[in-house]
Amino acid sequence: MSVEALWYIPNQVDPGHRGDDAVEGHNSLERLTELARLTEEHGWGGALLGTGWGRPDTFTVASALAARTTSFRPLIAIRPGYWQPTHFASAASTLDQLSGGRVLVNIVSGQDNLAAYGDSEGDQAQRYARTKEFLQLVRRLWTEEDVTFAGEHFSVTGSTVATRPVVREGRAHPRLYFGGASDAAQRVAATEADVQLFWGEPLDGVAERIAKLRLLEGDLGREHAPLEFGLRITTLVRDTTEEAWADAEAKVAKMAENQGAAPRDRRWFKAVGQQRLLGLAERGEVLDDNLYTAPGKYGGGGAGTTWLVGSAQDVAKSLRKYQDLGITHFVLSDTPYRDEIVRVGDQLLPLLKG
Could you list the pLDDT tens digit for every one of the 354 residues in the chain? Predict the structure, then answer.
């Protein structure tokens, strides 16, 4: 199976994200362009751009970086509600056409400060029902003309996107990535997404979720190509195993010292997927061969909750075990982001892809 390897660009107003270098101009166009170009030079297919109210607009950043690079593919995280499906379908297909078919899309349905941009808070069932309609409608607008759609959350009549996405063998439109561990999220993924992204759970947890999603594909009558799977995780890679664990433990010790300095968003930490990760520490500080759960106890969230730690050979061996389960998309990161794009790209990716 071919491997898709992407990095992560945090897209943050405040410097120092997850221990990143707090340098002047950390989120300037020059700095972000440097990161994007480094992904091109060190084996990465592109990078995920994080989203959320209070952060720079992800689509604007992606457009700027696409214009300043040649092969960099932005995985653009976007939220239904912040975007209307017709507006997003048009904007994304325009950027896809202008960039030569480099757009990737990550649909995010987790809770956010929705009222700040005129959206309304809904319960989990409502949020994912809306996401399902969003995905259905965007896909139709990218592939059909004169689209009429009457849903509970979105409706259009006679809608055609004038600028079409780039079509090539195996690609009818930008790939649609999706995350979420709740039952409602998994039902959306099984029918409407192209790639389901998992956070860094142990192998048995990922295997269980893949098996469930495969069953849901059949039970719910999936109409698209089979769902693909991806892993979004922190990879702390050093020249030796001993050096990696020493650095990992030192980072966690610093996190413990600073715990409470930056309060967590309690809404976000209630997410089912996040709770699954935080519960892993009860099983042990190190799971499988080198999945480090301690960061989650001291403020690590999302992809920073668990880390794969070790030499490039150690981490590649672990990632290949996920690959054996069916994972073909990897979104990796560590801080400082600039240095680790190079280190992980040069040391780990040749082993993973080889």
Answer: 689 999 999 887 776 667 667 677 788 999 999 999 999 999 999 999 988 888 899 999 999 999 999 999 999 999 998 899 999 999 999 999 999 999 999 999 866 666 776 677 677 788 899 999 999 999 999 999 999 999 999 999 999 999 999 999 999 999 999 998 899 999 999 999 999 999 999 999 999 999 999 999 999 999 999 999 999 999 999 999 999 999 999 999 998 988 754 445 555 456 776 778 777 778 889 999 999 999 988 877 778 889 999 999 999 999 999 999 999 999 999 999 999 999 999 999 999 998
Between CA 140 and CA 147, with CA 142 as vertex, the angle to 5 degrees is 45
Taking CB atoms within 8 Å and a gap of at least 24, the contacts of 279-285 are: 280/201, 280/202, 280/305, 280/306, 283/202
**Phi, psi (rounded to 5 degrees) for 4:** -100, 120
* Closest to 319 in 3D by CA, of 339, 291, 341: 291
pTM of structure: 0.93
Count of CB atoms situated within 10 Å of the CB of 181? 20
Where does the chain show beta strands of DSSP type E?
4-9, 46-49, 73-78, 104-107, 147-150, 155-159, 175-179, 195-198, 228-238, 286-287, 291-292, 307-311, 327-333
